[in-house]
Design brief:
The protein is mainly alpha-helical. It is built from 29 helices and two strands. The protein has a two-stranded parallel ribbon with strand order 1-2.
Amino acid sequence: NTLDESLLQQVGEVVGITSCIISFSVNLTDNMDLKKFLLKSVQISDTTMKSLKCSQCDSNYPVGSKEIDDLLDQIAKNNQKFNVSEWNSFLKLSFHNNSKICIPYLKSFPRILSHSIISTNEKHTQLMEILTKNSNVEYDNQVREAMANIFKILMRYDGRLFFGRDYMESTPTIINRLSDLKTEAGRQFNTPMTETLLLIFGKLGTVIDNHIFLPLLMELILESTYSLGLMACEQINFIAKSKNMTVKSYLLQEPLFQARVALNLIKMEDNYKGIIDKICESTFFNISTLELFNLKGKGCGDYIFSQILKHKHDDERIRYLETLSNYSGETEKGGWKILLLDHLPSVACNLLVNDNDKTFKAFDRAIPFIASTVNLSESKLVEHYLSDILFCLAEKLGTETQDVEIVIESLHKVMEIVQNEKKRCCERGKPCSHLAEFLEKNFLSIIDYLNQRVFDKESTLLTRKNLVGSINQLIKLLGSHVNTVRPKIIATLGLFVRAYPELQEVASEGWSTFISNLQIANLGPILPQIVVDLMTLVNDPKTKPRV
């Protein structure tokens, strides 16, 4: 009440570790006089202060370490939690407008919150309040650093220590809220908030094991003022160093890094491009224009063309495509048409499967536009590239992160265009004999493509499992039409079981679907071969019940 600045600072410096002591997560050595400790008496040495380590707050394990799971169990069993409301008077001082007072409380904030009885939603609220309650205050760099460190400490190990078993849902929620704040700060030209968020993204990038912050930082480089762009570059450099990587190698870890930068350059007005050049030259990214617009690398071309074709107006599309053509070294006018056709199957697939509302509006705008530029009807254009489009869609059927339903709807859409159907032939979400017939005609070429990808030396185990999953989905879509292609299916599934023991579990699902759709008359002659192939699966406890 009397605003004893010195005393408030002293309490702020020790209140965090005090919360760790009260929760029994600190091993106390010596018979410490807690009162002297709280008042930082000269009788308490700096060495003793530094030796106070909290098993939760001061843990330092490598990312992915098994010790983190053990620590979570230990925290659940041994550590005592306290009611956060009892500590509100301390937490409120984190928002004090005197930086000398608020900094020590900001440093203690993550310790208090870590040991509180508090719901997951309240954790989200408390974290975000650190930013929103101070959104218009021009703090000095030390305060911003302390605020950013709160996120770094609490979100270590992908947020597992702070959020516990809820981390898989909670960590993306926090990142999305930060992203929304970034957008809002940009809209309101709130530079202090943007600078604080930049520091937070940089800190989080060192403790969260994915590349989610790179696109956010790239957006700030490409869309902000020169000074904010430089600050974003510094954070990228900071993250790269924490991972023992060069900046360029870190940037190229993000598959669409080049494509995102290239797309922004295409869309920018000429007077902004100079800013990007300055940032690129003066900081980190020494990539030539032609290298940046390498449309054959890492899905760059597919991404850029897909984003350009989503625009509603033809003149906008053509302007961006012409700019892209110039950047990529294509000097002939209209050269973008050749580039676009090279990428058409993947671009068509992207426009279809990334349409979350399943209306396919972007696809419906893009296909007539492309068809008109090459003087073909829509059905002829799609028919010309049909095999490659089907290969692309079929591969996505078994991808774990992909919504299977939208891929099936995309296959319907392609079939309708090729067959010049004006309306849907069957009810959504139900087996469709028309689609089964359509897939049966193209099944052998699709299965050969997927087989080739499975046995490609470059394919990872996860990719192979997804590809076999795609074949399982295709078998399901064929339904009774599997009878006409049964030799190919038997040969394919049998080969997977023999060649890759690690694929046996996912292959057994395909066997189950296949056999359940076979007609009895067709099952008899091939039964011995099926039994031989399935005997391989009997000894595996995971596949035995299905066999």
